[in-house]
Amino acid sequence: MEISVIGTGYVGLVTGTCFAETGITVTCVDIEKTKIDKLNKGITPIYEPGLENMIKRNTEKGRLCFTTSLKDSLIDSEVLFIAVGTPPDENGSADLRHVLSVAKEIGNYLDHYMVIVTKSTVPVGTAKKVMETIRNELQKRNVDIQFDVASNPEFLKEGAAIDDFLKPDRIVIGINSEKAENLMRKLYKPFLLNNHPILFMDIPSAELTKYAANAMLATRISFMNELANLCEIIGADINMVRKGIGTDSRIGNKFIYPGIGYGGSCFPKDVKALISTGEENDYPLEILKAVENVNHNQKSVLYNKIHNHFHGNLRNMTFGIWGLSFKPQTDDMREAPSLVIIEKLLCQGSKIKAYDPVAMNEAKRRFGDRIELVKDQYEALINASALVLVTEWPEFRLPNFKVLGKLLKEKIIFDGRNIYDPAEMKELGFAYYGIGRK
After folding, report:
1. Is 28 one of the annotated active-site residues of the chain?
2. Domains (ranges, CATH) in the chain?
3. Which of 91, 202, 204, 436 could connect to 231 by a Cys-Cys bridge, CB 3.0–4.6 Å?
4. CA dist., res. 39 & res. 48, Å (int)
5. What predicted TM-score, i.e. pTM, was given to this entire model?
């Protein structure tokens, strides 16, 4: 079976590579020639554990190739995935220009039946727009070629995307014909053999499912962050509260860890887009508006603790930042809390020494020479007034606190992820600030 994937961003590249891993012949398409040239040389444009080796393996076996020609990719394809970016528009809605541009090009070259699948995260009604766009182009060519459009949202977690794709909790597919369903079953047969659940539904429901899933997870995070802030006021410990509710089988322990706000490419964008969809349909989604507002404020919580501890006297002070990416196992800094914290400190005249295991190049691109990027976590603490832990990378979990205490000017830790034990920190002589803890 042969398929095409349009777009070699995070979703497109993982999707194409993982399908190739199951034995399918995949052509990945992108308009950026430089990116395609690098991929053909085995150079991966994104960081995702295990992806680079998988790309090399499948490229060498001839199951995965990269091109800038959408026309050539259509020749033998039975299924085509649209996996281009849908950045938020000014009003928070998803910008569909890239998706519809691809649909138009498909209409220019389509010459046999295939299923066109929206893999990008898109609002309800996008598949209908894709179908109309392709039909308009076919009419201009005076040809009558049958095709179907389907929705197959992705549920990939950055840092665990390969496992998420190859061992999915569920596969959601929105279809409107039996022929399309049969072809999608054929495509996903390797997953069905491993008993991964596949859910066929109408297209609008599939389109909404992705937004609903991310909005629910974002809601859990903001809810816990609100409780954490309350815990500090009333003298409770959010970690105890988390354990108390997480053992309830109706709630569970996923996504109930307090911190300094969610970031990345999905949650912020998808919450905004779902809010926008509600407004477009005259139905304001008040809970999600609150979720977004709480998250916006939470990104300043750690900075506020720093500001209060030093009584606002932050000019010319140096802070060691551990972690820049929005979460571990990725170099993605989109909407990362680190951006807010660092910018606020810089605005106060502070100096920053920062370290992240994989996001240093991205940090250099974003900050330039405004902050000092160092080679390891301990170098970031030399003559710093405090450690500010932003991202919970595994290598930060058990540092040498004796070394840490000697390097810092003052033994102060601002822990944005609650990975250290307050009692232990007190015993070691550190002033310790967590989130929602005594």
Report:
1. no
2. 2-201 (3.40.50.720), 211-298 (1.10.1040.10), 301-433 (3.40.50.720)
3. 436
4. 14
5. 0.91
